[in-house]
Design brief:
single chain; 3 helices; Immunoglobulin-like; ten-stranded parallel β-sheet; mainly beta
Amino acid sequence: MLLRHFAIALAIVACVPVPSARAASFCVGSVAELANALTYYDLVAQDGETVTIRVRQGTYAVGGALAHFYGAHANDDVTLKLLGGYTAGCASRQPDPRNTVLDGTDAPGSGIGLMMQGTGGLVVEGLTFTRFTGATTLANANGIVLSDGETLLIDNDAPTASDEAVYEVRQNRFVRNAGQTVVRMGGAQMRFVNNVIAQSTLAPAQPGSLLLGALTVTLDADVDAAITATNNTITGTTGGPALRVNTLITGDSARLSEVADNIVWGNAGTDIVFSGTPEHVYPLVSNFNLYASSNSNYPQGATDLHVDPRFVDAANGNYRLAANSPAVNRGAFVQLQGFPPRDADGAARIVGSRVDIGAYESTIDDATTAIVTTTADNGSNTAPTAGSLRAAIRFALAAGCPSLLSLAGPMLDITGDVTIDGTTQPGWTPNEHFGQFDGTVCLYLNGGGAAWGLHVPSTAPSSARLVVRGMGFAGFSDAAIKLEGGRNHRVWGSQFGAVPLTVANRNAIRVTGNSGGAFVGGYDDEGAVNLFAGSTADAIYLDNAAGGSTLANNVIGFQADGAGNGGNASGVTAFNAKNNVLQYNYIGNSTSNAVTLSGSATSGNVVQYNTIGRSYTGALAANGGAGVLVNFAANGNTIGAPLTATWGGNFIAGSGGPGVWISSSGGAGNRVLDNSISGSGGLDIDLAQAGPNANQPTNPATGPNLLQNWPVLASAVRDTAAGGVEIVSGTLTSAPSTTYRLDLYYGIECSTPAPGRGLALFPMMKTTVTTGAQGVASFTVAVPFQAAKLLPGGISATVTDPAGNTSELGNCVPETLDDTIFKNGFDP
């Protein structure tokens, strides 16, 4: 998703030709053909190539034939797809892993290792792995010998490892395997979804090994690692733990991981083990898991279950859920990466009100049979009109699609577990594209000036939960949805404002009081996109002390087409609300600021990968104020990349004020890193009062981000002979004996709204500088220029101290080219 935002930024600067991607596809029906296809991936595939290996249905007695570390010798950026379930000639596919079986035949050392280089990705789907005993010696490109027994090893620990690479193991079965671990994953963004690991016999290479486990995941800080482990079933493990997560992450350098909706049960050892020393951390969402035991490091949640999942016939390998299973319709309302569309055998998800916990989805639908059959409303919560919205939460209106449901009085407060599902109305269709709202909403709730449409009061218990799908809202004088209590609320595929013949909402959604953990939108699921248009105040207002809300992939300030102006007074505001996540949203056309972080309790918020000030087409959709404003002592927030990484940057364009502004009242520790900013009405990155501020005689000082001094650049030379290396010289005067992160930015020129200062149009690679005992660092650094075909422009920089205080964007120096012809003595 990062690429979809920054492609817009690069297109504005220059049109750089990109070589067409190569692809190779294999249809294999024998062990030899499979081994040959993997060898092609390992030794032949070129940079940027995608290698797809389609395995026909059948059982393959591979023995030890695949006991190799494929990809250790591969070129950078090669993607591998290993897919089972194909019919003869690979004419069609049935992705049920029971149809395609790789059998290790209990051969000593049998297994398979897969390594990715650079940004190379991986998908392994629709296969059964059985009777592997673990590869005993596997060598990678650097000559490192691995002697860990495993069935499937996935790794990217090479020097070219990329923090953007995605490895997915989904919809597979691992049954009756032996070794130190059955599946071991290490790398950047790892996803283990809809898999079954059963009847594993573990034998550690040495006592206390951190690699021991049926599924073992290592989170490595060097590649900003994260794991998404959802809807898996791990059972029948002997000799060690079933699920192990090891972390090497410290501080803020990790992405958010998710472990949810898994069954880890019936294992002889500990079901879930999290390993790490006290300084290592797990940025983690973990909920709705069913297990019997865990170690003390695992963050147990109130939504976890500790009861027998009641498999249909575990003794004979049937791990589907019985009709009376407590895991049926008991999973989360939201997953960060979106619910998988199929279960482990290829059956559809979701049946019923919630996803089932574990790898399999039952056919049991627990949804209420109450149906909305009329648009009438008498305003009574004790004796509602039969067939009205007050009396039901599913819909079958004879009036068809669309229908406007006008309220005569406030709705009954929600104090339980309630789903309002407008997708059940005939005529509803899901959204199909990010950045716009092209689905069909059939049911619109018109408040006509009522305070709110749906309300969870502060007196509601923590178990209260509201889920809203596929609804429209207009005409509410407080908030269309107001969440004051309960937790884990979910708003999905709904429209707020831009409804003909209605008045605007004040707020579309407000999360306040003691509510926490709301999820608005979704990841990797176009159907989850919400539209927010025309609010007279903030479209989304978060002022709950518990914080922890996630806003992802929403369209804020646009019409349904994602292009027209549907501006709100402001986009998103967090006031004294902590640890919220804003990612992948389009926010434009606000009268004031796109995003505001305000109040001393507003800390730990993450604003990443958002497109602010442009539509999904790249057209300008300017916000009247700052792109992101931080004020009233808000502190410790991340706008763009974490302190030690280069991922997560936002695209911010056309702001009426600064691109990112830590105002005079702002707090300290606000990181502003790796964003692409253009067309600002002020400095692209600004501290204190609006406009350029001089460096302080002594630093740190008192003020926003401790008035961190900016680096004074003296020269910038692009060495074209070295493939576009930028050699930058300058001086930083700040705290003594301190190492600072130095970020260099490219702009098309040095002429800005703040004369002498730079533009942050294109973030270049980060580096570090260290001050001496007098607090001065004179530096000359060389960093790769990743867009070396751009015309010479201006270079500017920021620094960020170890506590996360980012400076203003400093002075701009024009680029010069190091012309190798002149350097070698040739006259023009």
